């Protein structure tokens, strides 16, 4: 069965109900680096549930990780799929626990050509059970083996341009050697992130860190640097994934602040490669 534009762009899911607990949010917060110093009062609210647990906003990316139904039966060459971008708009802070309702649809398909692949965007709308919007999320994948399916050749989204001046600040995070082993407990059990033999078959010298783990680690860097650790100040968080990260490497988050826009780029210090690029975070005072 051949992947076709008309089939993909018509795909929509029925609303689905989810529930989660503060234990899941505690685990997520710790898995992206919160509480490395448990006595730091600025981070204590992310690792201790009293008076009320705070949640790193990018936890939105794992709350619905079990829903793969929209593309589950599509004839996609998953062995050649890369996570291209992640975009989340936060309509309110993530509660420490709750009941949710979500629906998803294919919002864009871009055909780069038979030998170049296709870009597929899955948009997820998530609300609290009472109907209040919680977040809107775009998961963008690059299906390298599925070009030539038809449809537009250019995306309506353009990468966020970073300022040309020197960064206004830098936040350095030393990832843990066991970071991927910890992060996979939030829901992504892909063996690429834990099994050395599997990683080598995929072309990597060792298991790589989840892209969404790097995404969450960077969100922590922005919370600390420009939001005074207040998750309510973060209104959106977008970036492109440009290079894998290996657990134990050092991530340097370069940050530029222009009004309510914080731009960012993340570099792996040990290899001098950019892991996350064209980052844009909308913040409020």
From TrEMBL:
Top-level taxon of the source organism: Bacteria
Gene3D superfamilies from the UniProt entry: Hotdog Thioesterase
Domain MaoC-like, first and last residues per copy: 163-274
Gene Ontology BP annotations: fatty acid beta-oxidation
CDD domains: HDE_HSD
GO molecular function list: (3S)-3-hydroxyacyl-CoA dehydrogenase (NAD+) activity; 17-beta-hydroxysteroid dehydrogenase (NAD+) activity; enoyl-CoA hydratase activity
Name this protein carries in UniProt: MaoC-like dehydratase
Boundaries of every Peroxisomal multifunctional enzyme type 2-like N-terminal domain copy: 18-145
């Amino acid at each position: 069965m051949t992947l076709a534009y008309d089939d993909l762009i018509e795909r929509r899911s029925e609303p689905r109900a989810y529930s989660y607990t503060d234990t899941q949010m505690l685990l997520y917060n710790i898995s992206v680096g919160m509480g490395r110093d448990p006595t730091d009062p600025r981070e204590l609210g992310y690792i201790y549930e009293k008076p009320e647990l705070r949640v790193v906003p990018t936890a939105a990316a794992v709350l619905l990780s079990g829903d793969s139904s929209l593309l589950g039966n599509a004839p996609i060459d998953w062995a050649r799929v890369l996570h291209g971008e992640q975009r989340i708009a936060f309509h309110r802070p993530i509660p420490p626990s709750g009941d949710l309702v979500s629906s998803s649809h294919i919002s864009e398909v871009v055909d780069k050509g038979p030998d170049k692949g296709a870009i597929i965007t899955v948009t997820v709308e998530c609300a609290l059970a009472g109907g209040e919007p919680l977040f809107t999320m775009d998961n963008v994948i690059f299906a390298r083996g599925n070009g030539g399916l038809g449809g537009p050749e250019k995306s309506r989204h353009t990468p966020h341009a970073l300022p040309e001046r020197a960064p206004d600040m830098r936040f350095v995070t030393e990832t843990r050697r066991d970071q991927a082993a910890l992060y996979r407990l939030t829901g992504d059990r892909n063996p690429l992130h834990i099994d050395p033999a599997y990683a080598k078959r995929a072309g990597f010298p060792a298991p790589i860190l989840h892209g969404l783990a790097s995404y969450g680690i960077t969100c922590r860097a922005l919370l600390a640097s420009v939001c005074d650790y207040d998750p309510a100040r973060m209104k959106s968080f977008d970036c492109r994934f440009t290079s894998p990260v290996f657990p134990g490497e050092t991530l340097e988050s370069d940050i530029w602040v222009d009004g309510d826009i914080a731009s960012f780029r993340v570099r792996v210090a040990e290899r001098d490669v950019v892991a996350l690029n064209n980052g844009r975070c909308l913040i409020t005072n």
